[in-house]
Amino acid sequence: MRQLLQVCLACLTLSGCAFNSIFISYPLQIAPYKAQLSNDQASSQLAELAENIDTNDGLLYAQESGRIAQIYGDFESSKTYYERAISAYRDFDDRATISASDVGATASSIILNDNAIPYRGPGYERIMLHQYQALNYLLMGDPQGALVEVRRSNQLQASEQSRYQKSQDSVKAMANGTVNAEMKKLSRASGTVTSSFLNAYSYYTTGLLHELLGEPNDAFIDYRKAAQISPDNQFLQQDLVRLAKQMSMPQYDEFKKRWGDAKLPKAGQGQVIFMVERGFAPVKDSLTVPFTIDGNFQTASIPTYKPRSAPTSKTAISGLGTVLRADTIANIDALAYNALKEELPAILLRQAAHVAAKAEMNARANPDGKRYNQTSDAGAIAMQIFNVISEQADRRSWLTLPQQAQIARQFVDAGEYQVQVANAPATVVKVQPNRATLIWVIETGNHTRFYSIII
């Protein structure tokens, strides 16, 4: 028994981190911060959250800290936190050989759970990290820095396609009843979204920045990529028609026939562009299955998602003359569902290793099988309790991302407008001739924040 306890303690030591996500679910850790964002409370606990950046889940905590600071309008701190996350991703990319800490984390995950593995986010999180860093640069007055980040975002969308194909091969190789059932459930939940890395919101943001910063050809390419993913968005359609018309492109006639002619600005008008983010990304649930092996009680847990909530309605925007209704450009929750679906085969492989390792530990704690004596009985019971307590599904993900993103655009006369988005209090929007006013609207529960810049 003493040897078994030493093994367990060694695994905790090798994992090299605070025990946060190993025994306490990640959604439970982040819930207080989301509550503060929902009720417009001050970010009093942000420094406490950021202290975890040096732990096993450091990349995730850096992403959350950057996003929370960004929502509060502290773009400088957000930029610093995001840089930490970007650096962590690069460390993963540059790690040519498995380090001792990786070996320890892998060993710990077999005896404990997947939360002992250093967190490396799915593709859509990494792509959105660069998208949000670009917005930090833009709102801090550094458009060239913003362009660097959106180009990185585009490069990642291309590289993730190769990784996605490999994951699909794994899915086919592991096809069985359990895998297929979970795959079908996640596919139904994600709707028409077919992968975790094809993000129309990121492509749209990239295209928008290219256009606003005087690169219409690059903007057209990215808008077209976004339209291939989100083909029914009316504002995206109009952007393509308008750019094709302005640049006398051969696609103009085709686009005009499909979506109607472009609405061009009148002399002296400016434009108002809205990017509206609503809600929070979904929280992973846990699917736990109890069973016995050789009379010893065990459990196996894997992450899953509950069925998606009803689609969010179009956001009404008033105060600019006619009422605008922002149109969905991306459902971030659908990307999260697909990311879990792509990762499921690897999760199940690791789960099989958990079960085998813990069954062996149970057998060592009770070498006489059912013929217990006082010592072996106590050891077996203690080992079974440890197995149940330590069996936690990996529910980590970037939880302060939005559930959904919507866009809207309109040309209006120069001046000041009292603009109201949904039920939020009205805010003053300034429009200048031949300029664009970009308004970033972030709705988090019961509170909505506005950030704008004239470009």
UniProtKB/TrEMBL annotation:
Keywords: TPR repeat. It holds the Pfam family TPR_8. SMART domains: TPR. The keyword Lipoprotein does not apply. Transmembrane segments: none annotated. The keyword Signal does not apply. Coiled coil: none annotated. TPR repeats lie at residues 200-233. It comes from the Bacteria. This is Uncharacterized protein. The lineage of its organism: Bacteria, Pseudomonadati, Pseudomonadota, Gammaproteobacteria, Alteromonadales.
